Amino acid sequence: MKLSVLVVDDEPIARQAILRLLRDDPDITEITECGDGQSAVEAIRAQSPDLVFLDIQMPAMSGLDVFRTVGFERMPATVFVTAYEQYAVRAFEANAVDYLVKPFSRDRFAHALARAKGRLAMPATTADASSHIIQALDALRRRDDYLERIPIRESEQVTFVDVDDIVWIKASRNTVLIHLPDRVHEMRETMASLAERLDPRQFARVHRSAIVNVRRVQTVHPWFNGYHVVTMDTGQKLRMSRYQQEAFLKLVSIQR
Prior knowledge:
- The protein is α/β, with parallel strands linked by helices and 256 residues long.
- Helices cover 36% and strands 30% of the residues.
- It has 2 domains: 3-145, 3-Layer(aba) Sandwich (Rossmann fold), CATH 3.40.50; 149-255, CATH 2.40.50.1020.
- The longest helix has 20 residues, at 126-145.
- Residues 150-254 form the HTH LytTR-type domain.
């Protein structure tokens, strides 16, 4: 199998590492490199390489932007490269998408290249591969839509709260009370509306009137009649509804 390969990475050292490993492979007949997303789009459209090693985190135009701009139908087989962005890795693993985590070993690179060659040798799986990549990118896009900071209006000023600092959130009629380690902010928004904008991998609804930051959970103890008590790292104790089984499993897995 003779292949043409495009390597896209804004870091010259990382790009050279991939180029060096590719030159050792007798199946690679042509290698092109790009240091930014826009030139990558132009190279893919002009050269139609068989395989692309595509860095995710690039300024101006990310690897995901490159994929969307070129289009799923015209995009070559792709191995995504990431500097260990855990959410990206989970999305790729869940959808069987090839990826490399920087810094990677020679063996890990060889494994990713072999998988890519195997998929290229089976054109009947191309549609399935595209479907998997679309699902992975959709998962990443949803992550980008989640709040990282919450603006809260207080009198004539706006206070910004980092979601990582939130301990838990309590529903209070048409407002929510955002509990931080040292203070509480009131926000005019419904619990349901705010919950949709929070990353479900970080926030879990343990009761109809309470959402917790799972990263700040200290312990979960059984109570009675199927209920549990969640203790936060501030010492705050919250009752978990017996109907919140999914949230309970998520919290338990964190403690193991």
